[in-house]
Amino acid sequence: MTKKEIFINSAFKENSVWRQILGICSALAVTNLMLNSLILGLGVIFTLALANFTISLIRNWTPRSVRMMIQTLIIASYVIIVDIFLKANMPEISKQLGPYVGLIITNCILMGRAEAFASQNKPWDSLIDGIGAGLGYTLVLIVISFIRELFGFGTIFGFQVLGDWWISWSIMVMAPSAFFLLALLIWAVNTYYYKAKA
Amino acid sequence: MKDSFWYPIVFMLIMVIIFAGILSVMYRFSAEKIEALQRDSYQQAILGTLAKAIAEAEGSTMEEILAQYPDSYQEYIHEQSVTGFERKIYIAEVDGDVVAYCFEIHGKGLWGSMQALISTSIDLRTILDFDIVNQHETPGLGARIEEDWFLGQFRDRLFVINPDSEEDVSGSYEFIAETQTPENDQQLRRVTGATITSDSVIKMLRDEINYIYNYFRNNEL
């Protein structure tokens, strides 16, 4: 596969959320505000890309019996680096994201891409795969959070776009709406992309 | 070689040393900056809760007091400890006169502890301002208790109704939905999707004001 194909594959064709149903917990949790979704998405892109690159770089020396421990160690280290960086340089954003930066460690997309791609492919291909998978995940977060924030608060990225006449839909702020929207998104992608293509 | 007994152990050990080393170095170089940012942020929060009282006594504006940080903090605010009282106390003084108090208070939220600052009038009965400095609530839901519209509801609130009674020290405040408009002064808007967190905030305020007020009825501040 060319690098472009790797990127398109990981970001869209084999999107971690709508195709592989990974990373659902955070997709449900943070998506009532677009800013939180964007920042978490950027954190995941950074961690995923560098973790993939590092795991791929040492793949020929990594013993199979301890590979998952090594992958967890690398992912956790990059997450802590993101956490320290945000605390030292963007304290407000760090405060807003609260526990979610640390929880990137538990995002199944990271272990999924490490196992499925990075441990078997070259470093630069793995880096691109990581960026693509991270962007695909961020795209889903942004789409869902756009709908939830708009109908739930009448805002986009915190800016009021719907006037006083708008009565906010409380359900959109709460977790159940993320379930409905995610299910609708998966249905729409399956119907209009995968089945149409088949 | 990769199949030998010792190889995975040695490899794992080397990787742990490398990554722990990188993190230690990064933390060592950032720790001072992080501590300074956290200290500034905390002091600014204290100043923020006391700024209105200072500005009124000083004849200036809140914005001016806040803009002059850290000088204004050094000039007007000092920390005081009272033996046996288990909260941090910050006193705002203008020309030698106490204009307000600020207390660090604690409570329990849905997921963990909450740390907040309240500034009170000199008689300790009214909350002048309120700020949450640390909480572990759900981002986008409970964490919205830090938003200004929510915090602002507690400004200039009389919490100690009857100063002669040890029991009746909390207001009869009740929560209504975020989307509703309060019909009287006793109604406060809760954060949508965060009922427990909203209730925890008011419980923390009631408990802490109760404790502070009753403590200083019998002890000097």
Concise description?
The complex is a heterodimer of chains A (198) and B (221). Chain A is an all-alpha fold and 198 residues long. Chain A contains nine helices and two strands, in the order αααααααββαα.
Blueprint (SSEs and pairs):
The complex is a heterodimer of chains A (about 200) and B (about 220).
Chain A lengths: L2 H11 L10 H6 L4 H24 L9 H23 L1 H7 L10 H11 L4 H31 L1 E2 L2 E2 L9 H4 L1 H23 L1
Antiparallel strand pairs in A: 1-2
Helix pairs in contact in A: 1-7, 3-4, 3-6, 3-7, 4-5, 4-6, 6-7, 7-9
Chain B lengths: L5 H53 L3 H6 L3 H6 E4 L8 E6 L2 E12 L4 E8 L5 E9 L13 H5 L4 E2 L15 E3 L10 E3 L5 H24 L3
Molecular structure report:
The complex is a heterodimer of chains A (198) and B (221). The relative contact order of chain A is 0.19. In chain A, helix 1 runs parallel beside helix 7 and helix 7 packs across helix 9. Chain A has a two-stranded antiparallel sheet with strand order 1-2. Chain A has helices at residues 3-13, 24-29, 34-57, 67-89, 91-97, 108-118, 123-153, 170-173, 175-197; strands at 155-156, 159-160. In chain A, strand 1 (155-156) and strand 2 form a beta hairpin. With 198 residues, chain A is an all-alpha fold. By secondary structure, chain B is α+β, with helices and mostly antiparallel strands. Chain B has one domain (6-218). Chain B contains 5 helices and 8 strands, in the order H-H-H-E-E-E-E-E-H-E-E-E-H. Chain B has helices at residues 6-58, 62-67, 71-76, 148-152, 195-218, and strands at residues 77-80, 89-94, 97-108, 113-120, 126-134, 157-158, 174-176, 187-189. In chain B, strands 1-2-3-4-5-6 form a 6-stranded antiparallel beta sheet. A two-stranded parallel ribbon of chain B has the order 7-8.
